Amino acid sequence: MTRPVERIEEDIQNLKQNVSSVATELQKNYGDYLVQLGESIQKQLILAVYHLCNQGYQEKFLHLSLNQRQQLQQSARQLGRKAAQQLLVYLETNIPENTENAQENPPLEVPQAKSLDFSNPIEVVQWHHNAEEGIQNTLKTVSLEANLLLQKAGLLPKKLPEPILAAAAAAVSEASGEVIPGPPNLLNLVIEISSDDESEDSSLTQLITLNLRLGDIEFADNTLLSARKQIRNILLQLNKLGKEYQKKHRELKIAEAEAAWRASWFED
Fold first, then answer.
1. Nearest by Cα to 96 from 69, 128, 57
2. Closest CA to 147 of 125, 124, 131, 164
3. Residue 4 in 3-state DSSP?
């Protein structure tokens, strides 16, 4: 027999308190993770550019003037700092908002508890998905900007179309060709470039581009790996609570429907 509506509603309230507690823990751990991730991105970006300049395109790098080398290094550092900042801003502005104009003018600093119902596991899970998408989008954007920076400096071929660089930043696309194993956060490709004329002549060109990957970044940072493991454990708790949350709401609807039936029933 279905339990009374009041008892089920009480269970849901207790469940929402548990969800809120776990969600708050997730928020704190994710904040710590993002700070550490931003620091790691800056380090891994510089290491990847270093490898490209010294082992990938060393001859071209040596042809640069001292000022050009310093500008390249400074721009790479600035790009790393920008990535760390953008990561946090992107995640803050992708938290579910209650205002219609939030998309047009997203605030840079928004208390997450005001934008997100921490007692609703569905919203918390969606926030987590948005955060993960934010991380991947940031890595792709930074990788593309770094490759364009290397191209501007003359290390990557000038005639290389930007879509190829974008494909490299997004890992492997259909036009990328064969991928060769290489160092972390770098993509070693063999691509086929057609000539400018109408002939069918084309050439195979080996290309090394920067491609920041979350797996590579985490693997090189034990603190980051530990933080990710803790987040996974919290998500397991949240997933369990989410299933119970949905189960209770289905039970509540059934109980409310039965109560409505009894309230409207009368004998002829």
1. 128
2. 164
3. coil
Question: What is the pTM for the complete model shown?
Answer: 0.79
Burial of 139 (0-12, 13-18, 19+ CB in 10 A): buried
Instruction: Give 76's contacts (C-beta < 8 A, 6+ positions apart).
Output: 45, 46, 49, 146, 149
Asked whether residue 125 carries a pLDDT value surpassing 70, the answer given is yes
Give the Cβ contact number of residue 131 at 10 Å: 20
Q: Using the 8-state DSSP alphabet, how is residue 3 labeled?
A: P
* 140: exposed, middle or buried (Cβ count in 10 Å: 0-12, 13-18, 19+): middle
Give the β-pairing of 186-194 and 178-180.
Answer: antiparallel
> What percent of the chain lies above the pLDDT cut of 70?
79
The closest alpha carbon to 195, from 183, 203, 204, 184, belongs to 203
Residue at 205: amino acid letter: T
* Token pair of 59 as six digits: 């001859």
Task: Give the mean pLDDT of 152-157.
Answer: 91
Residue 116 is given by DSSP the state: S
Q: What angle do CA 235, 85, 73 make, to 5 degrees?
A: 125
How far apart are the C-alpha atoms of 50 and 46, rounded to whole Å?
A: 6
Q: Tell me the β-bridge partners of 204.
A: 192
**Cα separation, 160 vs 172, whole angstroms:** 16
3-class DSSP state for residue 202? strand
User: How distant, in Å, are the alpha carbons of 27, 198, 214 from that of 132?
Assistant: 13, 44, 10
